[in-house]
Amino acid sequence: MSAVPSGNPSAREVIEALHALRQAPVDAAWWPLLAGNLQRLCRANAVWLLQEADGRLQPLAQAGSAAAVDDPLREAWQDELRTLLGRAGSQGYATCPGRSAAGAAGWWAAVRMERQAGGWILLNLPDAERAQINELLLRAQLVADLPGPSPDHTPAAEPAPGTALSPLAATNGADLPQTWHRLADVAAQVTVQTAFGPAALALVNGLAARCEAQQVVLGWRAGPGARPEVVAISHRDKFDRGSAPIARTEDALDEALDHAGGVWLPAPRGQPVINDTPAHALLQEELGRPLHLLSLPLAQADSAPRAVLLLAFETPPSPLLRSLLPASLQQLLPTLELLHDRERAWPLRMKDRALVHLQGWLGPGRTGWKASAGIGALLLLYTLLAHWDYRVNATGQIVTDSTRVLSAQFDGRVEEARAKAGDVVRSGDVLARLDTRELRQQEVDAGAELKRYVAEADKARAANALAELEVASARAAQAQARLSRVLELINQAQATAPFDGVVVEGERQELQGAPVRKGDKLYRLARIEGLYATLVVPERDAALVAPGASGELVLVSRPGQKIPLRVTAVIPVAQTRGSEGNQFLVRAELQQAPEAWWRPGMSGAARIDAGERQVAWILTHRLLDTLRLWLWW
Questions:
Q1: d(Cα 124, Cα 107) in Å, to the nearest integer?
Q2: Per-residue confidence at 562, pLDDT binned at 50, 70, 90?
Q3: Where does 311-464 have alpha helices with state H?
Q4: Does one domain contain both 202 and 327?
Q5: Could you tell me if 91 and 78 lie in one domain?
Q6: φ/ψ of residue 101, rounded to 5
Q7: Confidence bin at 175 (pLDDT 50/70/90)
Q8: For residue 412, what pLDDT is reported?
Q9: CA triplet 617, 621, 624: central angle to 5 degrees?
Q10: Are 616 and 551 found together in one domain?
């Protein structure tokens, strides 16, 4: 079996090694040899030969510096790899940019293996080869029919005169190295050109010289529905576009478009042949000598053919050449299209793109897209003519003005907290009690001092010591005042509800045992009467809200129940609320009697009616307002 050439092999050595692989039996050692030769042939960083079975990709062989690039079979890259292989499955090859494990730029390329069911060639190409990607892909495609046919394989029969060619004719591959070398040389001559005219001449002259064709003609279509026009003829720099031979040639080029695989018309042998390519037959008569004609439409993926190539041979070309020509020429089509479009004026380029899109929309097929477009047009018409009730969104809260704050009357600690937010309380209910142990001790101390000073005053009175009596009496009065203050604080250690209502602030868990200072808020109570709603409206919608407007409020506790309301006032001064920007307060009265479950402080979402508006305005006014602010000057 052939080995991978060592060192830095020449192109001929690699081709000879690949040719030897065609004759070698396919076994476990065969696939690594193919991968190694492909890696050198395509100048790739690494090459993987993959086999798809049961929906999974398995590696057959790998060659090259795989450590420098990411593993293509890793889980994180499966979606991208499937997308790449899907594109390659539809057109035979596909490329996409990528990066190596070290962050170096590169390209991934996939080529479908023609004779290996579910087989793929995956190449990792360096970024330095970007300009030569088409040529390298062509090289990979020229050997994509490996492994070769089995020993009992019978070459395909010669196609009937005047019939369309199959996309790939079966070949025995005997002359593959020479044929590939000739086509690759033509591709190299075309890709180095920087203008469409020289590139077209390089293509037809190169094919005429390398494929031993008597004449090669390239026809180009100005648009999707246009007839091909002759743009290049081998060995001729100028030609008369109005002459009869050119007209016959363009008829044959146009006829080739009706045959997806092209047209092969051998030279007539005495009697005329009845076929379905009369334009090619007339062209043979016009040429005045027996020539074999081969016409090949060139297209990318599923798009309409852009060019047609017509080759005339004095001797029939080999089936291998006819099989490899379509794939190799298809690789050159993007280069020719790029050069052609670059030289056209921009209005013509815009017209071509418009024609392509119009043909896609107005031509046959794409029923789903057309139905979607029709539905979209109806929806657009509806948005322009119909009107909806527009409602301003706001956040709302139920509030009341009848509230009372219960606070700590002295520094201390909460000994007992009995209520929490939401509790319904009655007048006189104890909500919290402060620790009074220290006050009780102060009470005992003040009482003892009072007794002592009273005794001193009695003693001074008995001794008729008026000065000492006066001092003792004053001290006794001070002690009495201190005792009264302590007793008053002890009485105020209990926070009781001043009226029937609901606790709207204060939590038992937070107050229990917590230290407090004089004036610290313990609870806030509110009466369940005189309830109304306060709404917060964003500044962008504040101008749409007016007193008297109706609306609805939905509370978080019961989102299924809507509470009707009516706007009574819009506070004209904005409030700034962090990242939300300016907000305006709106006061609204509730249009139904308070229910037992309502509590002051309950919040929710509100909608305020702002009248009817055009549907298109409702859907786009925020975007248009934003654009007006951005574009204003």
A1: 6
A2: very high
A3: 319-343, 346-362, 367-385, 437-462
A4: yes
A5: yes
A6: -60, -30
A7: low
A8: 84
A9: 125
A10: yes
